[in-house]
Every structure is written in C-alpha cells, then in structure tokens.
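ok trying this again, last paste got cut off
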Amino acid sequence: MKKWIFLSGLMAGMLPCSAQNAPQPYGALPTQAQLDWHEMEMYCIIHYSVDTYTDREWGYGDEDPALINPARFDAHQIVAAAKAGGFKGVVVVAKHHDGLCLWPTETTAHSIRKSPWKNGKGDMIQEYREACDQLDMKLGLYCSPWDRNSAYYGKPEYVDLYRRQLKELYTNYGKLFISWHDGANGGDGYYGGSRETRKIDRSSYYGWETTWALIRNIQPGAAIFGDVGPDVRWVGNEEGHAGETCWATYEPQAPEQGRLPSNGFTKYQLGTEGTRNGKYWMPAECDVSLRPGWFYHARENSRVKTPDELLDLYYKSVGRGANLDLGLSPNPDGQLDPEDVASLQQFGYVLHQTFSKNLAAGASLSASNTRGNNLSLYGPENLLDDDRYSYWATDDQVTNPELTLTLPTETTFNVIRLRENIRLGQRIEAFTIEAFTGGKWEKIAAATSIGANRLIRLQHSVTASGIRLTITQSPVAVALSDFGLYHEPELLRKPVITRSSEGKISITSSPKGSKIYYTLDGSPPTPSSSHYRTPFRLPEGGLVKALAVDERQQSQTASLQAGPVKTAWKMVQPKYQGKKNPAEYAIDDRPETFCQASSMPSEMVIDMGRKQNIKAFTYLPRQDGDNSGTVTHYRIETSEDSVQWQETADGEFSNIKANPVEQVVIFQKPASARFIRFKATEILSGSGMTAAEIGVLLK
C-alpha cells in the first residue's frame, strides 16, 4: 500500500513517501481545483436569454424581460442532452451582456422577476442546480461583467453591484466547478435607458484581484476561467481547438508589470499554444458552439455540428491537453431542438464505443529504464491501470527512454492516448511511436506536448503485435501515467454540398459508395427524397439539404443556404482594381479571398444587374486570421436605380472578432432592389473595411 505526503506551494496533489526516489516536480504545478477541472475534460455552456427571442448574439440592454416566457422550459432535458454527449457538467449563463438576470436577484429590477414566466416567481438557475444534482452533473456559472442595461456601468458603484451578483450566485446555488468570465468589456448600450457608449479600462476597472478573492472565499473548489485565468485561460479562438503543441503553463502579457494581468488580455497565439516553462499553471479551455452562433437562431437549425465534426473538435481540444466547452442554445420554448439532441447523443455514443475498452490491456511492457529499478512504484505496468496518477518514471539522468508493449494478439487500432502525471508538472516535449507490423517496426506517429492528455488520431487503422514509444525530448525524468490503444468506429460523414460561381450544385459523400438523397423545399431529406446522381443548377439560390445512406447507417443532414448567382454582379464602389484585394473579391464566391477598401468611412455598392426581391443580406468577414477591416457596425441601404436610396437595416455584428462566421441580416420586410449599399460605421481595426464575401438571400 502506498503512503502519501502533502507538499506545500502550488502543489495540490500527493507524492509517494519515498521522497528520495520520487522525481522532483518540474515547473508550475496545478492546484486541486485545476486537477479536478482537467479530469472533467468536457462541459457545456448554455446561452438562453432575451437574445433567444430577438435573433441577436448580444442584446443592447433595452430588451423587455417579458420576452422570457418559455412554454416548456426544461433544465433536465438540456442537462440530460449534455450528459448523453459525454459532458461532465454545464456552465449556465446567468446574465449575459444585456444585463437580464435569470435568477431573482436583489441587485436590479432587470431580472426574471419581471418575466411572466411562472408569474415572476421562477428561478432558472435553481432549476439547473436541481437538474445537475439529479443527473450527477457539475454546475458552473457565468455572470457577465459587462452590463448594457445598468445605469451604474462604467462607474465605481457598478463594481460593487457586480460583486453582489456574484455573491448571490455563488452562495445560493451549491457547489460550483467553475467560475466563468470573459473579456467582453464596454461599448454602446442602453445604460439606465440612455443609449450611449461607455468605455472602461478593463485592466483596472473591475478590480479583478478583489473579485477573485471573493470567489475563492465562497467557492474554494471552483476553478476560475478568464481570458488570462487565473486558473484556466481562453485558448484565443471560438473555433474549439488548441495548438498542435499546447502547454498547460502560461506567461500572460499585459500592461501591468510584475503581476498576473487582468481579465481580457489574451494573446491569440499564446492562448492557443501556451508558454513552455510559463510561470503559471493555466491550461486552455476551447470554447465553441454546437451551432454557428451562441444563442438560438431558427435559421441555423440545419447547421448544427454533426457528431463527426464534434469528434474532430474533441481530438483538437481534449486530445491536446485542453478542455472542450461546447455551447448549447435552447430554443424559445426553453428546450434544445431535436437536431441538437440527436447530434449530442450520437457523439456520446461514438466516444463510448471508442474509449470504453483499452486494447492495450493485457500487454506485457518493458522499459529501457525504471526509476531506481523500483517496479512496484514506478514500473511501466502503472500505465495500464485505472489510476490517473500512478506512473512510470525514469532515473533523473534518463530523459530519452524507450517503452515497448507486446500485445497478446495482433490488434487493430486507430487512436493512441498518452497522459503524464501532471501533479509532477508537464515534462515531456516530444516523442515518437512505432508499430511492429508486417515483421518490422514502422513509425506511425510523432507529437510534442502531452500533459493531461494527448490523443493521436491515426489517418488509417493499424494492425500490430507490438508498440514502441520513444521519448525524444524531455528536460527531466519521465513521469508517464497512461498508455492506451483504441479503435474509433467509422462514421458515415454528412455529405459535402458545394456550389460553383455559375450556380452548379455538387454533393459528395465519404466514404464513397453511399447513396445521397436531397431536398430543395427545406424539409429533412429521407431515403424517399430525390436521389442525387449528377450536379444540377440552382441559379436563384435556395436551401439544399442532403444526407448519405449506406447498408449500415445514415449520416447527419448537411445543408447549404445559397443566394443568387453573382456572375452578372458588378462592384460600383470601391473602384479599386489593383492586383491585391480588388473589389471583385467580395463577390467571387471564394471565401479565401477578400476585398479591402482604402479608408474610412467605407462602403461597398453592388449592382446586381436586375431588380430582385431581397429578404436578407450576408457578410462573411475575412478568413485569413487577421481581423483588420472587419465590420462591427453597419448600415444597409437598397435602391432600384442607384439614385433614390432607402435605409433597410442597421446594427452590429456582435462577437464577430472572436467568432468570424458568416453574418446574416434579415430585413424587417423584403426589399425590392437592384443596388445594395453596405456601409461600415465601425470596424475592428485598420484604415478601411474588408469583406471576404457579401451576398443576398431572395424571398
């Protein structure tokens, strides 16, 4: 039986009592709250508020609480769907930037008390608490620091109000696994009913160190997430992936010198990759929504991520040592749509089928070195037990060891899992894996950081009788805790629908040999729908839905919402025709290119060649990772003759910096027009607006 001792400092875990034999911890180390967070691997964040009813991503703060009146709100249905997907907890957005509180707070009248739901006596946070308790799921909460409704925002009084909101939430709703915060801070809103812009210094206004101390006191077991921690950092994108190399340690950079910087200053590349030998243990959270947006939009019902897409995100987040935070968007009735539930269930099923059995179980293991030759404490057999913190270790001077697994029989696998005992820090920097197949050793994989998790998803299944792991780079002795071989079942992927610039629709499936069925009327395709055989034309655009079917299964539904063909379109403004980013790039049906105007104020004027009945405008920001010129606030005007113009829509593209997906502006009523003027009233940065693609949807 192993004996344990506690270590002081950042070390929250425990190490064997034979201190002279145990490897020394390396670098920054996780606290117990961070270890608990790592073990969760996946959780969901739930966005439901007035935006669910206004078709926005960020509310302005002037929305009537009476909008919140779901006919069938069911926290149990939402949490159960997350659990079916393999997620271990949920983070509930208790207050978003619009300021509407989903619990009966004493801090503001702008709350669920003013809603007709349950006659103003409802408490959605309490219902989520009860659902989590019933389903053995963990609960986390997010209360937005930016409040576009509060008359006090931007003033010292608001910081006290915000802390009182946190105190209510963190005192009254039981144990939380995470206190979630983001970096959205300041801008225009209806502060106390007055439409104005309020800017704050996010490095000092909130007094985050005092706020963190409040959270630690009330919820000592909760990890705190923010752009730069202090416990968990934002990965730097809302695409759901970490870097190929991803360090759990991090060295934040901000205006303040000599201390941990405030929330809101993540450097994108550093967030994605972390900092090798960083000062703090601050692992990455990868957030991404199940739908394109964070809140429910009916137009996105056909764009729910498929199980195959979720699997890809899983390997690029959890498989790189980060955690996956998946956004769920309840509909106006207060439940998840069937498409969302089905995708989560199938994703969870595939995860279970893949990881329920370690195919390396029963293998005999031999290592080129074992620490102190102490096989009971540090032997390689520890890699195959169910203890995440028992481990194989080498002597201090042995940093490039080899480990060989001899399998009982030839085994077919396509996923490899490695873990380090992160109680001792993140140590290994590079490794290779070989398989003994066909009578010889063949290299099948190589990677860098391991940390809490490293999943390698092979392009093809491998059948082998032996596996050899070689640590090629490590500054200190190895402390590896897990080695697994798994087989992921093949999924029939949803079809890929593309349209050429001339309007020709092509649909392909993978693997080949499956049959494809499609619809053009918006209805879900079935094996009784039109059978796709050859490409067809769709010059006026429309909604194409398709699914693939083989003898074993059928895929999720794919969809493409296309506007009219643009071959007759002309850019009237800007007139720039140079070789670099000319005006035509905004209407070339190629998202990889983009048009760039030279100065602000900027506008783009399009001649569509003929009058059309337009119901919506679409804007795709540049997709090259540079957000300069990206439009955040806009005005859209339409005209039949380019002389008389009418304003058709204006507003903001909320959250476009972090989530640069196609933006759809639905007009209040269809506009009959030949010309469209798209004006940028504000951009993220740079001297002029940019656009990868602009288009329209017809009535």
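PB: full thing came through this time. The CA atoms of residues 502 and 565 lie 6 Å apart.
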